[in-house]
Amino acid sequence: MALERLLNVFSAEFNHQKEAKLYIFFDEVQYLKEWEIHLKSLVDSYSDYKFVVTGSAAAALKLKSNESGAGRFSNFVLPPLTFAEYLRFIQRDTELINTVVPPGVGYTANNIDALNEEFLNYLNFGGYPEAVFSDTIRENPQQFIRGD
Question: Which one of 57, 61, 103, 134 has the fewest beta carbons within 10 angstroms of its own beta carbon?
């Protein structure tokens, strides 16, 4: 379904006017053929709306948005978690790492074996927030990474 048609169905269902102040979200937009043309048209036609578009094919999204949305689109790349972010995410950062006083001077490991074990977990699937808490993904990280 074209993005504009989808937007029109939504607007009719909830009685939104074209001049309304709305945020419209489209997720995984790269699956729609010529999404960038549809989005450009919407941005031009619905100037009071704010559009947020996400997709997992970052390189393709960036290339397409640069080609057709110059001046209309802003790109934000969300990289995978860093190891430090991963440790905070699983709430083991203060357990495994000590900050040397004064802060920023250095760090020491409270338990180097546990820290190394978490580093291996991070290498296998820790860069993907979805994988950190999913037992299914953790059991078969190669399939998850290959599929995504």
Answer: 103
Q: Which residues does residue 52 pair with via DSSP β-bridges, in sequence order?
A: 25
Amino acid at residue number 99:
T
Give the angle 146-116-101 at the CA atoms, nearest 5°: 125
What pLDDT score was predicted for residue 145? 62
CA–CA distance, 146 with 148 (Å, rounded to integer): 6
* Structure confidence by residue, pLDDT tens digits, 8-56: 999 999 998 888 889 999 888 888 888 888 888 898 888 889 998 888 7
Token pair recorded at residue 136? 């299914």
Residue type present at position 63: L
Q: Give the pTM.
A: 0.58
Residue 139, both tokens = 């059991």
Amino acid at site 49:
Y
Q: How many other C-beta atoms are found inside a 10 Å radius of the C-beta of residue 147?
A: 8
Tokens at 3, concatenated: 């993005």
Q: Where are the beta strands (DSSP E) in the chain?
A: 23-26, 50-53, 97-99, 107-109
